[in-house]
Amino acid sequence: MRARLSDIAQQAEVSEATVSRVLNDRPGVAPETRQAVLTALDVLGYERPARLRKRSAGLVGLVVPELDNPIFPAFAQVIESTLAQSGFTPVLCTQTPGGVTEDEYVEMLLDRQVSGIVFVSGLHADTAANHDRYRALIARPLSVVMINGYVPGIAAPFVSCDDREATELAVAHLVALGHRRIGLITGPDRFVPVQRRVAGWRAAMERLAGLPEAELDELAELTLFGVEGGEAAAGRLLERGVTGLVCGSDLMALGAIRAARQRGLSVPGDLSVVGYDDSPLMAFTDPPLTTMRQPVAAMAVAAVRALVDEINGHAAPHSEYLFRPELVVRGSTAVVRRDATGPATGGPTRQRPTPPALPVPA
């Protein structure tokens, strides 16, 4: 023990007596000196005595639909970090197809006596789901916060990105580049964010692109989320002569780019594509993806603060907080070609040469 005390004292640049007082949690040590000793323990790989370990304020469940889409790990990382800073221990619950359901995860979390639960894009976003499950949780009582999805009549804080504004901004960007036949690719219409995106796209297409409502149905494809869904939907829309695509996720946008290239088209030379999320690595795709950025950090911090307030008995307003998306312009959108064809000829077919890649400095 004496050798260990001397190592710690040397690392912290204090006396062995000071180290002993800190390890035994005795008074008479300045806070900065105490922290220096604790840091020395961590650096040298010694386990802190139980009396000095920071006690968790409680467990908080974090339920996300998947980790394949990079936007959900991004949310999870910020939420977990913010919870830890507030003294809570996060418990991550990830759903997989055919695996543990949201309700089963909730039962597991209740068995562990969690202080609250954060739901990210859960069943609260599905208008076909029974939302009484959330009313039952709140009645226990249990503090809950929901991200990206809204249910009227649920006494809880909701945090969402403004999906309607996102598609309006995306359409406005493409219209400014000369596009008029702008398609929409997004998920099933039973989800609240999808309904809002469709409404924003329709409003912008009528107001900015000048297309009548009767022509819009053939330019919208509601499909499965993911690369494969985006690829299949883009193939159908290309046959209808679209020159621009607004997608409901970055993964869908990558699928749309794949569909274009399989038909000998270049992006953005023949087709401009806008994604949604600005998930990690989208700046490094080929081409770098123009996308609508969700303010993940701000949304996650707001959700955790609302949950902590609820847990501490300071009820946050039970309403929806809408966060403004940001258009991030990169290389997947460009001015429409002058010879871009319309639906009568089945869409653009001419392949344009891809510019040579620029050398990347070491």
Helix/strand/pairing category: alpha/beta
**Average pLDDT over all residues:** 89
Strand content: 15-25%
Q: Count the strands?
A: 12
Shape: elongated
N-to-C order of helices and strands:
HHHEHEHEHEEHEHEHEHEEHEE
Helix segment count?
11
Task: Describe the fold and architecture.
It is built from eleven helices and twelve strands. The protein is of the alpha/beta class and 362 residues long. A six-stranded parallel sheet has the order 2-1-3-4-5-11, with helices on both faces. It is elongated and about 85 Å long. The two termini are 50 Å apart. The C terminus is likely disordered.
Please summarize what this structure is.
This protein has 362 residues and is of the alpha/beta class.
Key structural traits:
362 residues, alpha/beta, 6-stranded parallel beta sheet, 6-stranded mixed beta sheet, 11 helices, disordered C terminus
